[in-house]
Amino acid sequence: MISTNIVGYLGPRGTHSEDVCSNYYLEKKWTFQPYSTIDTCIRAVASGDIQECIVPIENSLEGSINITLDTLAHEVDLYIQKEVVWQIHNHLLTKSVNEEIHTIVSHAQPLAQCRHYLTKHYPSAQLKAVESTVEAVRIVASGAKNHAAIANINASKLYNMNVLARDIQDHPQNCTRFVILGRQPLEYAKGDYKTSIVCRIRGDKPGSLFHLLQELATNNINLVRIESRPARTELGEYIFFMDMEGNITDANVQCALKALKQKSLWFKNLGSYIVCKNNIL
Amino acid sequence: MISTNIVGYLGPRGTHSEDVCSNYYLEKKWTFQPYSTIDTCIRAVASGDIQECIVPIENSLEGSINITLDTLAHEVDLYIQKEVVWQIHNHLLTKSVNEEIHTIVSHAQPLAQCRHYLTKHYPSAQLKAVESTVEAVRIVASGAKNHAAIANINASKLYNMNVLARDIQDHPQNCTRFVILGRQPLEYAKGDYKTSIVCRIRGDKPGSLFHLLQELATNNINLVRIESRPARTELGEYIFFMDMEGNITDANVQCALKALKQKSLWFKNLGSYIVCKNNIL
């Protein structure tokens, strides 16, 4: 049975993914279904357990979310329905107001993103990486002495925490791109679109990638992103994810993709979709 | 003071990095210096605390080691001296021979690399990710009940463990590329070389990357790898790591790199170096 009006996201409650999910599905009154890993969440759409999912695909500081790319390429046949750019805010949270801080706990990514702030304000504190920001908040909320957590504001509300410092990330431009995935390609509507594909080419000849990009350049298509991932055959063999401006219904995009497909050993269309930037300040 | 004949690696004792380190520096009688993170290890070479380091840069299944690329691009000015391709063997280890297994513990990467094996042989076991394979072995060795660890053979010897199953990785082709980094470019000697660079180009014009790759194609240079990483300015701005065949002293490589540099907003030569494949079966 195919389940409709259910959207999957990377749980548990209080994650950035849940924030984004609320923003896009609360009004539509869909049911939210948390998953403990990104790949099980994506596979649940492919199997029909849920209708759509919303998963992170790239962060502006840390780069690609590899499990999302690899699952899209190797494990499922899904289409991107929408891209959501979401600004990430990291806050320093404690249980009580006046406690001295000896240990700061969070996921490895926020710890890395706040490194300069932490070195300046807490040079002797021990940094401890755990599996998620919500897990970090749980540890501090459950009474770990002299601990602070780095997490988003919803997690702090969920566990009734004290916000010791706001927006402590080193770079103001800390955004994550999320994609909404579904089983069918999006129907075309007016607006600015991007189109994503993934392909594999012969890696043993000079200029293979160059000849592929030539098709985009001659069709005047702007390649906004290219990302290589292992082909999983042997070291030195890659697949390429490409994001370009335009819609699959545009004549020049159609023409370029046809040529790309012909020059590839393997080719997959990941869909044409609109870009949303909702919470960007 | 500049310290000589000391090589840094990602510790603690028993890691794959230590295996590779032993293979290349034991005969030379250098001192091994373990570091708890890859970036502190690389920075120790830049500051002169140690003479060289050996760090992972890419895995054939999991892709780039981002912290290595980012540190090389943004934090230090070092040169690759040698590339070492190392085959990774994952074994299932227990403390006693006949214990039932309820929990399997390892670093997230080996757990992912053995997923099919684990699903087939231990469908109901809980998988637990910890910070390193050595930490996983420590947990099992210290007496955690009904636990098994996934790690390499040296870690099993170090903690006197029982090898329950050998080579349980799903793909036989599981290799990691390591690079040896030093403060000076390598002096040229005979052999097959690769050259690595990293650069940033204008991302807002169609065909920017295409025009860059054109310089390699017209000089008949094989691009063996291209990897994009965030430029850390804003989402959608990238730097490109490129590995090509040839040595900086070759006329065509010199010519291409000169043109690449001219077309880049920012450019860095990461060195020309020999490739070694020592333990490949």
Strand portion of chain A, in percent?
Answer: 25-35%
The radius of gyration computed from the alpha-carbon positions of chain A, rounded to a whole number of angstroms, is 21 Å
Task: Compute the number of structural domains of chain A.
Answer: 3
Low-confidence parts of chain A lasting 5 or more residues at pLDDT below 50? Answer: none
Task: Please identify the oligomeric state.
Answer: homodimer
Largest pleated sheet of chain A:
10 strands, mixed
Could you tell me the number of beta strands of chain A? 15
Which chain pair shows the most residues in contact?
A: A-B, 43 and 43 residues
Count the DSSP helices of chain A: 9
> What's the CATH C level of the largest domain in chain A?
Alpha Beta
Portion of residues in helices of chain A? 25-40%
Judging from the principal axes of the Cα atoms, what is the shape of chain A?
globular
**Which architecture of the largest domain in chain A does the CATH hierarchy give at level 2?**
3-Layer(aba) Sandwich
Element-by-element helix/strand order of chain A: EHEHEEHEEEHHEHEHEEEHEEHE
